[in-house]
Amino acid sequence: MDGTVRKDIKIGDRVMVVQKQDQRTGKLTEGVVQRILTNSPNHPRGIKVMLEGGIVGRVQGGMDRK
User: Fold this and answer.
1) How confident is the model at residue 59 (pLDDT cuts 50, 70, 90)?
2) From the CB of residue 18, how many other CB atoms can be counted at a distance below 10 Å?
3) How many CB atoms are located within 10 Å of the residue 19 CB?
4) Taking all residues of the chain, what is their mean pLDDT, rounded to a whole number?
5) How many domains, the chain?
6) Among the four 23, 38, 40, 62, which has the fewest Cβ within 10 Å?
């Protein structure tokens, strides 16, 4: 699972995201999906989500059901 397909991501999933300011370094942040922000069915750089706590980033993988 690489986080580029919207239908694979559900509210409540635990995921690893890269925030905009961390794209150059690739630093990942772990959290639980609160909202899915990308409307298209897929995105080559990862589906954009908002995590619980308000962090926004693109899913890079590490998905688990909560």
Assistant:
1) very high
2) 20
3) 14
4) 92
5) 1
6) 40
In a domain, 43, yes or no: no
For the record, the structure tokens of 66 come out as 């909560």
Contact at 8 Å (CB) between 61 and 2?
Answer: yes
Rounded Cα gap, residues 20 and 42, in angstroms: 18
Range of the domain at 56: 1-33+48-60
Q: What's the first-to-final CA gap in the chain, in angstroms?
A: 16
Q: Is 50 exposed, middle or buried (0-12, 13-18, 19+ CB in 10 A)?
A: middle
pTM for the whole structure: 0.89
Q: Tell me how far apart the alpha carbons of residues 1 and 3 are, in angstroms, rounded to a whole number.
A: 6
CA 23 to chain centre: 13
